[in-house]
Amino acid sequence: MSSYLHLRGEVALRLPPDLRAQFLAEHKTTLFEAYGVVQKEYVAVPAALLADTGALAPYFVESLAYVASLKPKPTKRSKTLRSQSPLTCRVTT
Fold first, then answer.
1. N or C: where does the chain have the smaller number of CB atoms within 10 Å of the terminal CB?
2. Distance (Å, rounded) from C-alpha 13 to C-alpha 5?
3. Within 10 A of 44 (CB to CB), how many other CB atoms are there?
4. How many helices (H) and strands (E) does the chain have?
5. Could you give the CA distance from residue 60 to residue 11 in angstroms, rounded to a whole number?
């Protein structure tokens, strides 16, 4: 996920480490916090920047490129369950 809109109406943007540090300093904002948890890869987009879509657009481009470069998380299901379709998977008792 590269960005999201929180229930509070705030936007969180996932940025690579170097750009994240630059963004935090340049826009005088903080890491995004949701439900009491600081999300270390996400920055809070200030309202002034959110209103200036022209200035914000390059950050979205960088965010999408960063997320696309990440390795996918491994699945938690076992290989045997993954290889069987739901219709052919039988439970024995």
1. C
2. 9
3. 22
4. 4, 4
5. 11
Cα-trace Rg, the chain: 19
The C-alpha angle with vertex 9 and arms to 55 and 22, in degrees rounded to 5, equals 40
Tell me the percentage of the chain whose pLDDT exceeds 70: 83
Q: Which has the higher per-residue pLDDT, 9 or 55?
A: 55
The pTM (predicted TM-score) of the whole model is 0.72
Q: Checking DSSP bridges between strand 31-34 and strand 37-44, what pairing results, if any? A: antiparallel
Which positions ≥6 away from 87 have C-beta within 8 Å? Answer: none
Residue 88 has pLDDT above 70, yes or no: no
Q: Note the residue count of the chain.
A: 93
Residue-range domain boundaries for the chain: 3-69
DSSP 8-state symbol, 1: -
